[in-house]
Write a structure and sequence with these properties.
seven-stranded mixed β-sheet, 7 helices
Length: 189
Amino acid sequence: MFDRFARPYDSFMRLFHLDDCGALLKRIESEECSVVHDIGGGTGTLADALERCGKAVYLIDPSEAMTRVALAKNSNISVVNSEYVPGLDIPKADVIVLRDVLHHIKSQAAVLDCCYGYLSDNGRILIQDFNPKSLSARMLLVFERCCFERVYPIWPERLKELSTERGMAAELMELSPRDYMCIGRKAAT
């Protein structure tokens, strides 16, 4: 789906007020961190803002059409056209971000395992996604299904549980009735 909608994607996101990166930016800007992995960062809206704040950003996304748009926004972003899997030639991250991505991934626990492996000691994983309790989130998920995209909604409590099972101290934040954020911190080894 995302290869077909790369060009109008940002306009669509703005039209339906789905493009707000404010909560993530606020959390990351206040962190002393240098390397950020933006998983499923698509057209690079968040990656662009993070790079402009002085972060080294690695945007990892399988859609070449989407990442071409990201590079047109900011050529200083490092792009990896791939799934986020072990063995990528990228540095460990101080912060890993998944914004509106996890519900597109069937093997969510495996992705969290992979994130944990790429995370530096005391690093954080910030996951912002749609809350399946919300009517507007359910409508968005139905829309994505109508566009032939597979979706796997994850409840906030389940995401916190998966994060804790991986050895992270995890907390939940409700950003709006539609969106929540799970913040996981990796303990130093």
